[in-house]
Every structure is written in C-alpha cells, then in structure tokens.
Amino acid sequence: MPQFEQIASRGQIVPVLFVQDNVAASQTDVQLNIQEVASAAALLIDGLSMPWAGSVVGISVNLSAAATAGSLAVGVTLDGTEQSATTQTITTATAATAVFGQDSVRFAAGAKLGVEITTAAGWDATTADLAVVVYVLLDCQQV
C-alpha cells in the first residue's frame, strides 16, 4: 500500500471559486454560489464538500468595479459557519487578499467549504460582480 508524506506541494494547494453578480446592498451572511449567471438560472451550490482534511491558507476577493460608499465583508465558511480569521472587508478598493497559517483554519474530511458575504445598506457598487477564490491545502493522506 503506498504511503503519502505530509509535505506541502503546489499540487496540494487547490483554488475554489465562488461568485455573485450585481452585488446588492443590505445582504447579511449570504452564502455565495460556485457559479452564477446573470439573467439566467444559477447553479445553486453554495459550498463544496472536501474529500480530505486540510487548511484554508488564502483568500482572494475581486470586484469588477469599486464602491464609493458602504462596505463588503467576505469570509470563508466551514459547514455554514463563517471563520472570522478569514474575513476581508472592502470599502473603495476592487480587491483584497490574505494568507493564513497552515493550521490556523483547519477543516475535517467531509467539511463543506463555502463563502459568505455581508454588504452594508450604503454599499453602492450594486452593478459590480464579485469573484472570491479560497485556497486550501489538502492533507491528502491515505486512510
């Protein structure tokens, strides 16, 4: 039986994409979908089950246009619960990124990885599209 070593490599860091088009104001803890198409039926999957245990190691938040007022908070969720250590807040920028220590945001095999957002009532980038990439480091150990 082959053995896996616990050595991080580029192949074990996996990007997972979540999106929302036309980011509306006054959203509270709204789970993002893995795909959304404006003016069409969306693929309504708001998270992905992880086949292995692992860690969230990074996040990249990107908007197609900047706001001039209000704020957008974005955070990674595990089984529907936002992980506060991952929360990024954008006001007038179009992007935010962060990296996290390998074991600071852990998840077990089978955990559902997602993203949720909250926008202030004054958020005015309501025609902006949002893409969030969550980077996970998978343990990839055979059981």
Describe the structure.
This protein has 143 residues and is mainly beta. The protein has a single domain (15-129), classed as Jelly Rolls, CATH 2.60.120. It has no helices and 11 strands. It is elongated, with a radius of gyration of 16 Å.
Helix content: under 10%
Q: Average pLDDT value?
A: 88
What gross morphology would you assign?
Answer: elongated
Radius of gyration: 16 Å
Identify the CATH class.
Answer: Mainly Beta
Question: Which H/E pattern describes the elements?
Answer: EEEEEEEEEEE
Number of helices: 0
Taking the sheet with the most strands, its summary is: 6 strands, antiparallel
Q: Which strand-content bin applies to the residues?
A: 35-45%
Q: What's the CATH topology label?
A: Jelly Rolls
Query: Termini separation (Å)?
Result: 11 Å
CATH architecture annotation: Sandwich
Q: Would you count the extended β strands for me?
A: 11
Throw out a few tags for this protein.
mainly beta; Jelly Rolls; 6-stranded antiparallel sheet; 5-stranded antiparallel sheet; 0% helix; elongated
Provide a quick synopsis of the model:
With 143 residues, the chain is mostly beta strands. The chain has strands spanning 13-20, 30-31, 48-49, 54-63, 72-78, 81-82, 88-90, 95-99, 106-107, 112-119, 130-138.
Topology:
Elements: E1 13-20, E2 30-31, E3 48-49, E4 54-63, E5 72-78, E6 81-82, E7 88-90, E8 95-99, E9 106-107, E10 112-119, E11 130-138
Antiparallel strand pairs: 1-11, 2-10, 3-10, 4-8, 4-9, 4-11, 5-6, 5-7, 5-10
